[in-house]
Amino acid sequence: MDRLPPLNAVRAFEAAARHMSITLAADELHVTPGAVSRQIKTLEDALGVQLFTRGHRQVSLTRQGQDYYRAVTRAIEVLREATRKLQRRRQRKQLKIRAYTTFAMRWLIPRLSGFHAAHPDIEVLLKASLEPVDFRKEDIDGAIRLGDGHWPGSHTVRLVDNVLVPVASPSLLKAGPKLKRPADLAHHTLLHSSARPDDWGHWLEAAGAAEQVDARAGMTYESSAMSYAAAVEGQGVAIAQRFLVERDLQDGRLAMPFKRTVNMGDYTYYLLTPAHREETTSMRTFRLWLLEQFKAA
User: What are the HTH lysR-type domain coordinates in residue numbering (predicted)?
Assistant: First the structure.
């Protein structure tokens, strides 16, 4: 069996090659420059090749030294990654998940305590943001996004149907003006979310009322959660994603004045995970839990 080279000598070589300096390598390793030089000489003797060309106060890698440095760098990175994995296993696993504010507040957070109770070894760190996802630049494990299912560099899993439906408070519907047909919405305040400005237009077009009702009129809020809250308070009629207002409908805080709904097809919510990284056990557990929650709903 081939013997490994002296590992302390390899460590000294890697530091000196990375810094292109014996002195800086010595500072990093907390030894003297002379000790680094001796370790490199030991390694060269063991390998039977010259790794550095030594000049006045400077060193440079020989061709053999360059080849060996690339191999050593790869080996050290493998060792470093293996070490990180072992250290993570000793700690409580953390999942960093991005989601929209409304999705987080109205759907995910009310259910998250159940996930933590079932999986006490996994902590979900939730971040709300509208910004595009870039897994190569951000330290996140997954993101819940609204779109057509195509995000470069990401694996995607469809979560739920995106069904649009008008909703209003029962008190508003009782007070009037009456909402007998979609064109009657012209006599009410339409409530919008700036994150989804076209939803009313999609629904009115499907309902055949696009000519009678101005899809842009009304009041606009920063998030859908705000428009839903305004609807509960009787300030107008909101266009909602049905799964996000299901509890309000069941509890009577909101009502549907029309049976007409619009399914947005592939334009819906997806779980995104980075394509360049292998899915962790924790992420797989969270993904399966999400799908089970939507299935149960």
Answer: 5-62
| Token pair 């996930």 in the structure block, residue | 115
Domains and their CATH numbers in the chain: 7-89 (1.10.10.10), 92-162+267-296 (3.40.190.10), 163-263 (3.40.190.10)
The residues, any chain, with a CB within 8 Å of residue 262's CB and separated by 6 or more, are 163, 164, 165, 202, 203, 206
- Cα–Cα distances (Å) from 181 to 168, 207, 252, 268, in that order, read 14, 9, 21, 27
Quote the tokens at residue 56: 């006045």
* Radius of gyration in angstroms for the set of CA atoms belonging to the chain, rounded to a whole number: 30
Query: Measured between alpha carbons, how far is 293 from 191 in angstroms, rounded to an integer?
Result: 29
Round to whole Å and give the CA distance between 12 and 17.
Answer: 9
For 275-290, write each residue's pLDDT tens digit. Answer: 998 999 999 999 999 9
Q: How far apart are CA 216 and CA 213, in angstroms?
A: 9
